[in-house]
Amino acid sequence: MGIRKTAVAAAFGVFAVVGSVFAQGAVEGAAEGEVEEVIEEEAPPPAPIAAPAATPTPPVAPPPVDVKPAAKPEPKVDFYGAVQYRLRENMTSRDYEAQKYAINKDSAGIPIDTVKNGAPESITGSTADYFNMFSWRMGMKVKVNNELSLQFQIGNDWGAGEGFSWANNNMPSARVGFQNLYVHIASFKWNPGGVFVEGGVISIPSSGTLDLLERSLNKGHYGEAGFQGWSTEANASLLGLKVGVPILKDDVKLGLELFQSLIDQRSQTMAPSEEIPANPTSPLFTVTAPIEAGPLKLTPELTVVVNRNYNNKLEKGDNEMIFGLGGSYTVDKTLSFSLLSGYGSVSNENSKAGSYAFDNGTNRTAADRVTSADSATADKIKAYSSNGVLLGVGAKIKAGPGDIQIELKYNSAVNTEDEDYTKMDYIYADLRYGVKVNDKFTITPRYRAYHKTYPPEFHYGYGKPNRVVTNLVNRLELILEGSF
Q1: Which of left, alpha, beta for 466 (phi over 0: left; psi -120 to 50: alpha)?
Q2: CA geometry: angle at 459 spanning 454 and 465, to 5°?
């Protein structure tokens, strides 16, 4: 055998011997339970081959894109409205007392008080009147964005209603002056969070002071403030500007609000003089501090008319001040209570302007609130001091398919310079039961009583043989209202 073949045979022999040894070790280990799994490691991947350096290519600008500005949010508009029809019966009774007055004179010419023709000591008169009332209103609330909102509302005399007949039922002769169109509300409200500003014809409720103010300015006294009310006579709105600031926002909420308007816009008279007499406008200010603590809400209120009466000759004026407090307390969803109160006063002590007026059978109204009387004339003008009180309580009770609403008010008015002739008391009661027979249609039977007590010397000096003692109006009403 050659050397090459001998070397190959020797190599195979060595390999066979080594293999048998390893095989025997593996069998022995298996018999002892110590077989180890052989884990083969994966060979690492080959290293990447570096690419040859290339010349960088300049970036290519993307084609222009037409980007449109984000669409502005559309204002949210909510429309609302209502039509109301009332069937009303007024039953009035009035008590008179026979009034003594002079019909004879003695020999010295002194009047002798007697009762004319032996008239009875008391007389009662009564009337019953049936009529219908119609009211309507329509409005919209616009939320422009999170800070700005607007409101508009028009209609006829919604609070008081308007009576009608064939003559003024849209006949040609009545198309001017009937079914009047009023702007109830036309306002903006800007509220960025820390303060709000509201202007225009603003919806402004009364806690008692504005009820008295309306009577004082329109009638010249505080009487019947408990009968008519701010919402009835003014549709609970007024042209002006309001600014409000929240003070507390937690469990107890407290704010401060100031409303400003004008009563009489006056102006000075130009003259070739360095000292032109003053004639200031009379601004109205109403300050409220609404407080809310859980179910309890209270609103202290102060209303002031600066230079309400003014004498541009003497350059002196008198302010009108009215204090009030309103509130409510909600027991639960079925029961709540309300409060209304106010005290007001105004005089002509400094200005000698205006006069005290009241319903004495001739429907007198207040005189002008401005005068140009000089000192000599002013001293002869009759002084007056008008005072008024208003107290009211109410309750709302869930009963069956509807709500019972009860309201009681007491109101007094007097000129303290002539109390026996001017002191009058008013008591008002209101009971209604409103039932929603449809989600947007309500039927409300209602009863109201208006009781008025006259002063002891009410008709003295007017030549009237009978003095009115009391006057009572019982008003029965059925109110039908549809809304959206």
Answers
A1: beta
A2: 120
198-246 confidence digits (pLDDT tens): 999 999 999 999 999 999 999 999 999 999 889 999 999 999 999 999 9
Q: How many angstroms separate the CA atoms of 471 and 455, rounded?
A: 12
With the C-alpha atoms ordered 153, 159, 160, 165, is the resulting torsion angle positive or negative? positive
- Asked if residue 281 lies in contact with residue 306, where contact means CB atoms within 8 angstroms, the answer is no
- The pLDDT tens digits of the residues spanning 429-461 come to 999 999 999 999 999 999 999 999 998 776 544
Give me the residues paired with residue 85 across strands: 134, 480
CA distance 182 to 234: 11
Look-up: residue for tokens 């004495």? 360
Give 222's contacts (C-beta < 8 A, 6+ positions apart): 212, 215, 216, 344, 386, 387, 388, 389, 390, 411, 412, 413
Which residue(s) pair with 148 in the sheet? 190
The closest alpha carbon to 444, from 61, 84, 35, belongs to: 84
Query: Which residue carries 């198309």 as its tokens?
Result: 175
How far is Cα 325 from Cα 337, in angstroms, rounded to an integer? 14
**Residue 28, SS3?**
helix
Distance set, CA 119 to CA 98, 99, 122, 173, 363 (Å): 6, 9, 8, 46, 26
The Cα 11–Cα 385 span in angstroms is 142
Q: Cα–Cα distance between 180 and 155 in angstroms, integer?
A: 8
Among 120, 324, 47, which residue's Cα sits nearest to residue 210?
324
- 305 vs 197, 221, 308, CA distance in Å? 21, 15, 5
DSSP state of 183: E
Distances (CA, A) of 469 to 237, 357, 459: 35, 19, 10
Residues 378, 232 contacting (CB under 8 angstroms): no
- 285's tokens: 């200010």
| Alpha-helix runs per DSSP H in 373-451 | 375-378, 419-422
Please tell me the total number of residues recorded for the chain in this structure: 484
pLDDT tens for each residue of 38-88: 334 444 444 444 445 555 566 666 666 666 676 777 899 999 999 999 999
| pTM of the predicted structure, to 2 decimals | 0.79
Report the candidate in 312, 318, 306, 308 with the shortest Cα–Cα distance to residue 277. 312
Distances (CA, A) of 153 to 82, 233, 315: 11, 16, 40
Distance CA 446, CA 430 (A): 7
Q: DSSP code of 365?
A: -
End-to-end Cα spacing for the chain: 123
Contact (Cβ atoms closer than 8 angstroms) between residue 411 and residue 440: no
- H or E stretch at 219: helix 209-219
